[in-house]
Amino acid sequence: QPLLTQYCDGSRARCQGLEQWGSKYLGDQGFDALSILRNYYGQDVYLAQAEKVQGVPISYPGEPLTIGSTGPSVRTIQEQLNSISDHYPMIPKIRVDGIFGPQTENAVRTFQQIFYLPVTGIVDLATWYKISGIYVGVTRLSELR
Fold first, then answer.
1. Rounded mean pLDDT of 68-84?
2. pLDDT for 135 beyond 80
3. Is residue 144 part of a domain?
4. Are 86 and 107 in contact (CB under 8 A)?
5. 2-16 pLDDT, tens per residue?
6. Please, which residues have CB within 8 angstroms of residue 143's CB and are 6 or more apart in sequence?
7. Angle CA 112–137–53, to nearest 5
8. pLDDT tens digits for range 80-108
9. What are the DSSP calls for 61-103, one per residue?
């Protein structure tokens, strides 16, 4: 996921490097993603894919978090919900202990209600990434300093 990008469509906004419409036309000609990137940036471009992203935001653990879940993923959600609650005080502060109990479930439900997600109290994929996105926003992690 890019943290900093430029928008260059090639008609309204022009800049050095990859352009939206230029890359579209190359795709129409059968170029794959790597070939398009190399067309703009040279042959030294390679694509690598991480199985799991480290850092903040942290990747979804692969299974929903619910009552009884434990571990670092639960701790991450608890920490992020507490930070979010500084700006959304309806979300209750919870103990950060890595154990998904009734307090965490209640905070998740409140978060889901505020951000128009299905109110289940379960941290599924959609809830995980919504929490991560709001956390990045309220902590201003995406801003350049």
1. 97
2. yes
3. no
4. no
5. 444 555 555 666 666
6. none
7. 85
8. 999 999 999 999 999 999 999 999 999 99
9. -SS-B-TT-BSHHHHHHHHHHHHHHTT-TTSPP---SSB--HH
Instruction: Classify residue 107 by its DSSP letter.
Output: H
User: What distance in Å separates the CA atoms of residue 129 and residue 115, rounded to the nearest whole number?
Assistant: 12
Say if CB 107 and CB 91 are below 8 A apart: yes
Q: How many distinct structural domains can be found in the chain?
A: 2
- Which two tokens mark 9? 């469509």
Residue with tokens 């991480």: 50
Looking at mean pLDDT, say which of 42-56, 99-113, 130-144 comes out highest.
99-113
Q: Which residue has tokens 């109290």?
A: 121
Q: Are residues 45 and 77 in the same domain?
A: no
Entry pTM? 0.62
Q: Which domain holds residue 13?
A: 1-49
Tokens of 121: 């109290």
Residue 101 lies in a domain: yes
Residues 117 and 83 in one domain: yes
